[in-house]
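PROTEIN DESIGN WORKSHEET
SECTION A - STRUCTURE
LENGTH: 411
TOKENS:
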């Protein structure tokens, strides 16, 4: 049986909030005969808590859907300050020693992996994966979810001369130059990683499991929307600085005379600030994050899905947002303010309306346009979105391509 080790610090199962890409790919690959061990942190960044580790435990292993899942301790943090970096490096340190002792044991039992795959943005953990792949003389694959450390420079305002950034840039260069394959989730990232030394580059985007995210009938509507029965727009996902949810709140201030309600679902370091910032606005509500498996049922009442990001150049070509493809899959019009690849896709396929980033007035106009679009056209938007999910973003298609790629690298 072919063996693979998969590394992603923030991997989750469907019973947890957050992305489930590694779970779904691992589960799909296991059905194709792969023996999979997955290494993740037990500290969940959506809930900011440990799920399985008890006090004084540093790791626990479980069998989940034929995947041997190793939950490792990493230093906890609440806000994106210096403790976040301690969280990242503590996980990488823990991963190194976990791999070290596993390799010693597995050498004797002849159970060493045939290939190692690491998913970013945590470059130190990916670097550990590369070290052990080189030691074992096995192929190494890196999957680029977010372009670190570029996002820290552009969004976070870090200097390239910062000691930590210089260290991450060095890791990035070594990883790209030595990886057997670099998988990018955002097609626009291909040119970026190529300039930094990546050679074999493959685009395998994010996307939903269409069996779980089945198309939902567009919700029934009253003859005329009212404040009692409003037009509902959902945002699901992280409440962080990069998500620029304050722009949605500012747009909502301009919408107070229209029967539109915006529902934020999720958690993150900026959530409490957003709640305070939106104080007094009756057209906004906040809900706790929910497990990934519950998202389709949650969104069945949505008339539209909204996605915002900060006006950062990197986001125009380097993001592959799960929440957008979830909206496609269940069949809902979308409102986005991510200029570049995301807005272009929405406009080119007539899936909704778009706005400039960091521009509440423009976002207000986009929301208003969709609100005043007749129901039949919104249903056509929904159907076109579902079609795009089926033809491009289906998780089943991604797993098939992943399986072919990994077998090719091994053989």
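SECTION B - SEQUENCE
RESIDUE ASSIGNMENT:
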């Amino acid at each position: 049986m072919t063996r693979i080790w998969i590394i992603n610090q923030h991997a989750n199962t469907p019973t947890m909030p957050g992305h489930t890409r590694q779970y779904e790919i691992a589960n799909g690959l296991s059905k194709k005969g792969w023996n999979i061990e997955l290494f993740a942190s037990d500290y969940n960044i959506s809930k900011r808590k440990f799920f399985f580790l008890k006090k004084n435990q540093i790791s626990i292993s479980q069998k989940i859907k034929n995947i041997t899942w190793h939950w490792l301790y990493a230093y906890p943090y609440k806000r994106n300050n210096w403790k976040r970096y301690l969280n990242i490096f503590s996980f990488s340190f823990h991963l190194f020693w976990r791999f070290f002792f596993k390799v010693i044991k597995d050498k004797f039992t002849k159970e060493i992996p045939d290939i190692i795959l690491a998913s970013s943005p945590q470059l130190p953990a990916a670097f550990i994966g590369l070290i052990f792949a080189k030691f074992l003389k096995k192929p190494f694959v890196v999957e680029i979810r977010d372009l670190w450390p570029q996002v820290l420079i552009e969004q976070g305002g870090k200097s390239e001369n910062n000691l930590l950034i210089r260290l991450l840039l060095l890791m990035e260069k070594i990883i790209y130059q030595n990886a057997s394959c670099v998988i990018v989730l955002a097609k626009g990232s291909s040119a970026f990683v190529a300039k930094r030394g990546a050679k074999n580059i493959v685009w395998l985007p994010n996307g939903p499991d269409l069996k779980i995210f089945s198309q939902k009938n567009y919700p029934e509507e009253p003859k005329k929307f009212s404040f009692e029965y409003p037009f509902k727009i959902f945002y699901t996902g992280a409440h962080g600085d990069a998500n620029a949810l304050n722009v949605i709140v500012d747009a909502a201030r301009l919408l107070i005379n229209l029967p539109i309600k915006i529902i934020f679902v999720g958690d993150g370091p900026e959530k409490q600030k957003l709640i305070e910032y939106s104080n007094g606005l009756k057209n906004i509500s906040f809900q706790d994050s929910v497990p990934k498996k519950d998202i389709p049922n949650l969104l069945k009442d949505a008339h539209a899905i909204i996605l915002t990001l900060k006006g950062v150049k990197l986001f125009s070509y380097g993001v592959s947002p799960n929440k957008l493809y979830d909206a496609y899959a269940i069949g809902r019009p979308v409102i986005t303010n991510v200029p570049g690849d995301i807005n272009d896709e929405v406009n080119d396929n007539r899936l909704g309306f778009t706005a400039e980033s960091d521009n509440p007035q423009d976002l207000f106009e986009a929301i208003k346009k969709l609100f005043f679009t007749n129901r039949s056209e919104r249903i056509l938007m929904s159907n076109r979105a579902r079609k795009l999910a089926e033809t491009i973003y289906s998780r089943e298609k991604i797993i098939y391509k992943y399986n072919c790629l990994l077998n090719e690298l091994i053989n």
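SECTION C - NOTES
The radius of gyration is 21 Å.
The chain has 14 helices and 16 strands.
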